[in-house]
Amino acid sequence: MPTARERVRAELTAEITAAARRQLAEVGAAALSLRAVAREVGMASSAVYRYFPSRDDLLTRLIIDGYDALGEAAEAADDPAAPPEQRWSAVCGAVRDWALAHPHEYALLYGSPVPGYSAPQDTVPAASRVGIVLGRILGDAARAGRLSGGGVRVPGLLGDAAVEVLGQDAPGIDDAVRVRALLAWSSLFGTVSFELFGHLVGSVEDADAYFARAVAELGALIGLD
Amino acid sequence: MPTARERVRAELTAEITAAARRQLAEVGAAALSLRAVAREVGMASSAVYRYFPSRDDLLTRLIIDGYDALGEAAEAADDPAAPPEQRWSAVCGAVRDWALAHPHEYALLYGSPVPGYSAPQDTVPAASRVGIVLGRILGDAARAGRLSGGGVRVPGLLGDAAVEVLGQDAPGIDDAVRVRALLAWSSLFGTVSFELFGHLVGSVEDADAYFARAVAELGALIGLD
DNA sequence: GCTCGGCGAGAGCGGTGCTCTCGTTCCGGT
DNA sequence: ACCGGAACGAGAGCACCGCTCTCGCCGAGC
């Protein structure tokens, strides 16, 4: 049973993060001002420090929330009953849609690191959610024998995290598959980032069609056909 | 014949950009402080405004210089006499090496856009240099008949810039090749960014070996074998 | 009922980008 | 040769930033 004090504290915390998210969407992460957040919530800047020890901690909160929202979008888009290549493109599309809808949050997650700020370990579980979805798709495809390629051993190349996300050794899953999954994962984000950060301006007319083709090519790269 | 005044102005401008680049390497773009630059050069902050109308203009200068430096590295790494897949991996390696050596400048070029700042048109030629190198490699490979795949028409998908960089229609070059080239370029960027921005920590043990494999996979994706 | 801890407000510190003014210095035309 | 004007550097000042400290308040637990 939370006391009244705890309740109002939780409410105020949520209100602060909501205002911070609004401010993030307006001015970006680097210019996120704790004072402006305080103004929007209607209290003195010093009072915010009762809830977040520093601006960086507020940023960490936003980062974790962002990873969770993106991960949730990816999970919601994945229908385990669908064929693998369809699951792949559905998840890719969901990631892109979320990025286009929340460009500043996406930039916070996958853009330049904020100088002087290093993400704490707390962010790792949330950050892994999209990777886990992709790993599940690949694992299912491999177990169903619908994953071509593979067969290469590259000891010492990958770390434990990759093996954990992409499943233990199983029929059809080896280091070559994991490497290609990682590559597809970073390529997907390269493609989304290029579009979002304006590097495709002038080169691509129809961004939707380009993305669809890119996802198909990357699916083929992984071994989904 | 430049007057003495013009000479000292050019010198001071160069000194300011040099100090700014040093500061950029230390604290990153978002924390780049014009006052600190002025301190390092040894003049009042207001005096710097005689040379750069605003902090953003100083940033633009750094961006153009960065694109030029990266483009130069890519051009230097490309040996037109070598086989295409070797040229591809050499240029990819040069891009990654430059990024690892100048992480903050790379983040400035390919990371989150600075909010409220939009790159002026002046940056486009410098930004295109790496793309042009990649386009030349693909064009040469296509003319030599060493590019597999292609054969797909996707009218209205790509813009003029892509056609310009990747050559007019030629035997072996069509929209499908250009799309894959763009995809390879953004995937390369995604791979480098993931490594640089820390998204591969825990998943990849041997970054050099991973990158080499990624480049090889991407080369195959383009159609180089 | 009283005390003590959480709380909000306000002032203050050193920093930022940017503007304005003021005295100087140098360049070009007469 | 000189003088007017343009370029220049310095300094003060404005509004903002993150963060700290102190102070008065108020509610929850002993």
From TrEMBL, chains A, B:
InterPro entries: Homeodomain-like_sf, HTH-type_TetR-like_transc_reg, HTH_TetR, MT1864/Rv1816-like_C, Tet_transcr_reg_TetR-rel_C_sf. Residues 33-52 bind DNA. One of its GO terms (molecular function) is DNA-binding transcription factor activity. Residues 10-70 form the HTH tetR-type domain. The keyword Transcription regulation applies. The keyword DNA-binding applies. Keywords: DNA-binding, Transcription, Transcription regulation. Pfam families: TetR_C_33, TetR_N. PANTHER family: HTH-TYPE TRANSCRIPTIONAL REGULATOR RUTR (PTHR30055), HTH-TYPE TRANSCRIPTIONAL REGULATOR RV1816 (PTHR30055:SF243). This is Transcriptional regulator, TetR family.
